[in-house]
User: Which sequence fits this backbone?
């Protein structure tokens, strides 16, 4: 595959916005490897702030690999490595002084399939606020989150059951 070839298409909405386009992410010659397999080949791509960007392609073409790279989730994949640069607001997310946890606090990811922790439904919802030092009423916070996601009626009597039961 030639440099800068990608196996998926990138589409950004074209609605006119006031002011210049401002990239939130910039990739420069980004290559992603799983051991010796190269999943992404020297990708140069800008993703713009306040724009909708779609990655379109068949299963296995590198879309999820690319997205996991943006928040350093590939750090958890044995044999995965990145070459090139990924800039988030102009900062290289792979620079030695960058804490991957801080990147993940700024760049969330919604997975294709649910990936709950091996805990109760309640604990899965309360975990994030708890580890981030939330000192308010967790019961109220959990209930509010479930109401806002329209899940309260479905799970209000199952909060102490395994999240795997969902």
Assistant:
């Amino acid at each position: 595959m030639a440099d800068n070839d990608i196996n998926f298409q990138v589409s950004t909405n074209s609605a006119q916005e006031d002011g210049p386009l401002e990239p939130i992410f910039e990739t420069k010659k980004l290559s992603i490897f799983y051991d010796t397999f190269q999943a992404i080949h020297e990708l140069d791509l800008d993703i713009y702030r306040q724009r909708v960007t779609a990655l379109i392609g068949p299963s296995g073409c590198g879309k999820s690999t690319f997205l996991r790279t943006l928040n350093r989730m590939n750090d958890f994949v044995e044999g995965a490595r990145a070459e090139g640069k990924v800039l988030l607001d102009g900062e290289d997310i792979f620079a030695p002084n960058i804490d991957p946890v801080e990147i993940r606090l700024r760049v969330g990811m919604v997975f294709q399939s649910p990936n709950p922790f091996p805990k109760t439904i309640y604990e899965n919802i309360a975990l994030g606020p708890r580890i981030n030092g939330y000192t308010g009423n967790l019961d109220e916070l959990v209930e509010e989150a479930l109401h806002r996601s329209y899940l309260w009626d479905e799970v209000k009597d199952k909060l102490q059951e395994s999240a795997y039961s969902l």
